[in-house]
Design the sequence.
């Protein structure tokens, strides 16, 4: 069964360092998303991406964050200068069609720990 | 911005008891989706409701979308230990942003 894959599964970094989280969405999906979940809390929307551009982003997704689809398969989330409060589980998701009618398929997540 | 709240936050039940979680949005929704997240896992899609007043069933799970399309509920009949996890509703107001609810964590005891 097709699945969304994410790497790394866990990354530990020092405050102020840059981090890149990688995702390979399901191959025929057209919409890509990043969400984050601080331990024990709700799943928070960061950004949606379609047709090689951001379609929506949340207040969390400030200038420290960027997304890119550098080739036909990968979808990356970059945090330029990490802060302690960026520690969370980051989930990538993809869907065949947009959220209005589309089911989201989530990856297993990348746990980011900022020290 | 859009806020989606769920109650209760936690629910402990004995196996065989019923369980219900309620979801309320601050704005009218285009659709509502429900996801289940097992401990240590990722959200997994359960169902989507689109029409006002819609009711859908999946075995022991019953999902309902309110008439005003601002609330929803998930009811599990005769819970089993495999039902353990956090249940999230998630809604969109029409754009490409799915807002998750605060979640209800279900624990089932034998």
Sequence:
């Amino acid at each position: 069964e097709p699945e969304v894959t994410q790497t790394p599964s866990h990354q530990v970094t020092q405050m102020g360092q840059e981090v890149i989280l990688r995702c390979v969405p399901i191959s025929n999906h057209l919409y890509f998303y990043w969400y984050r979940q601080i331990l024990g809390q709700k799943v928070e929307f960061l950004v949606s991406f379609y047709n090689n551009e951001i379609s929506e982003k949340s207040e969390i997704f400030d200038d420290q964050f960027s997304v890119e689809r550098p080739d036909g398969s990968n979808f990356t989330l970059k945090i330029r200068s990490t802060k302690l409060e960026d520690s969370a589980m980051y989930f990538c998701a993809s869907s065949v069609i947009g959220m209005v009618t589309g089911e989201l398929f989530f990856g297993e997540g990348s746990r980011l720990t900022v020290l | 911005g859009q806020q989606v709240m769920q109650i209760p936050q936690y629910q402990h039940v004995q196996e065989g008891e019923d369980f219900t979680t309620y979801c309320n949005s601050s704005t009218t929704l285009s659709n509502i989706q429900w996801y289940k997240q097992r401990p240590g896992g990722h959200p997994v899609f359960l169902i989507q409701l689109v029409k006002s007043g819609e009711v859908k069933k999946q075995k022991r799970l019953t999902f309902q979308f309110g008439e005003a399309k601002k609330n929803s509920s998930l009811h599990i009949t005769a819970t089993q230990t495999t039902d353990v996890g956090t249940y999230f509703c998630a809604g969109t107001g029409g754009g490409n942003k799915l807002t998750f609810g605060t979640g209800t964590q279900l624990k089932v005891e034998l």
Q: What stands out?
A: Residues 85 and 109 of chain B are 12 Å apart (CA to CA). Chain B touches chain A at residues 1, 30-31, 33, 35, 37, 41-45, 48, 50, 88, 90, 92, 94-103 (CB under 8 Å). DSSP finds no helices and eleven strands in chain B. The two ends of chain B are 41 Å apart (CA to CA).
